[in-house]
Amino acid sequence: MNDILPIILSIVAALAVIGGLIPVLLKTRKNITQYPGTRDANDPVLPRSGSTAVDDNPAAATDRRAPDGVDLEGLETTTVPDDAAGLEVISVETPMPVAGRLIRLRERLVRSNNVMGKGLLVLLSSDRIDENVWDEVEETLLLADLGTEPTMQLVDALRERVKVLGTRTPEQVKLLLREELIKLVDPTMDRTLNVQRHADRPAVIMVVGVNGVGKTTTVGKLARVLVAEDKDVILGAADTFRAAAAEQLATWGQRVGVPTVKSDIHGADPASVAYEAVKAGIDQEVDVVMIDTAGRLQNKVGLMDELGKVKRVVEKLAEVDEVLLVLDATTGQNGLNQARVFSEVVNITGIVLTKLDGTAKGGIVVAIQKTLGVPVKLIGLGEGADDLAPFEAEAFVDALLN
Would residue 278 be called left, alpha or beta, if left means φ above 0 and alpha means ψ between -120 and 50 degrees? Predict the structure, then answer.
């Protein structure tokens, strides 16, 4: 018994030491994280392509001072391995080239249940076009969410041209419809995405919209478009309220080798996450930083004010080059109300119209542009990872009429 007692005491002492270490080993800092496989703030900044200078010494720790009203205390940017915290390791994919997806998306739009163009062609090819026919043309356009003013504009133009034509073959009708619809969709609007890196900073894109329109998915798909164009991208997960939103965005990023800056704290200040994402983009000399924001109803003043704060905080570091409003094409005229309010708060520069293949309308493109004077820049036509493409006025009208 005397021989066993020292052994027992040794075991108890060892357990006590281990018990004291466990809290230390398990302790995690609540931080903003970049993952997967991204550089720590103290790692050397790699030269951009074409640069000959290489810094052999690690860069100094980044300045953590934040603009007024944003608390970054205790938040750090760290490197997390791909398999950390149980994250699934996702293989990097090669996104489809933009040119290839445009062709496929046009075909999908042609196959969608579109009644706008086809309905107009049938009506205007009638043997006799009287007031009843014109009433039906007007109704068709309104039901397609074209809006009252654009509808009147198109009907007046069609009336005049049909009167001048006299006889009308199906080819003539299709041609005049195409010309007038293209005028309404307005190919002169600048639909270029401002994603070119500036001399001293990346291009910054904010993506906004109401709940459920597909903002996070749109950010992920747009990242694929940019990667296909050989751009270096960082994503910022500023939707800190929706469960798993940051993880969803990080997964999109992992698929194309793009890092995501996120917070480990549910409900963290979204402005601080956006700020950190842009700071990381500047430090790492990337081409584009994209910030995903939380969905918010346009009639919630507090949430809209918060969105304005995110933009103001980001602009302490860099100007926001694009504010893209994501709208669900199937919401119709309600999308206009959303667009107006968002535009007042954050100065929308472009529209991303999702689920365009799920609507038989399509006139919402014209209505939005007429209301805001802001172009539709991107369209989504499906659930696939590469089902997002630049909007082209003539291609869109041709799809409506085929």
Answer: alpha
Question: For 90-101, what is each residue's pLDDT tens digit?
Answer: 667 777 676 666
* Domains of the chain: residue spans and CATH: 115-185 (1.20.120.140), 195-348 (3.40.50.300)
- What is the SS3 assignment for the chain? CCCHHHHHHHHHHHHHHHHHHHHHHHCCCCCEEEECCCCCCCCCCCCCCCCCCCCCCCCCCCCCCCCCCCCCCCCCEEECCCCHHHCCCCCCCCCCCHHHHHHHHHHHHHHCCCCHHHHHHHHHCCCCCCHHHHHHHHHHHHHCCCCHHHHHHHHHHHHHHHHHHCCCCHHHHHHHHHHHHHHHHCCCCCCCCCCCCCCCCCEEEEEECCCCCCHHHHHHHHHHHHHHCCCCEEEEEECCCCCCHHHHHHHHHHHCCCCEEEECCCCCCHHHHHHHHHHHHHHCCCCEEEEEECCCCCCCHHHHHHHHHHHHHHCCCCCCCEEEEEEEHHHCCHHHHHHHHHHHHHCCCEEEEECHHHCCCCCHHHHHHHHHCCCEEEEECCCCCCCEEECCHHHHHHHHCC
Answer whether 0.70 is exceeded by the pTM: yes
Is the Cβ–Cβ distance between 220 and 292 less than 8 Å? no
Which residues in the chain show pLDDT less than 70? 1-91, 96, 98-102, 104-106, 108-115, 167, 297-301, 332-333, 357-362
135: tokens are: 């009433």
Residue 193 buriedness (CB in 10 A; 0-12 / 13-18 / 19+): buried
Strand partners, 260: 35, 235
Distance between CA 361 and CA 212 in Å, rounded?
A: 20
Report the C-alpha gap between 354 and 172 in whole angstroms.
Answer: 32
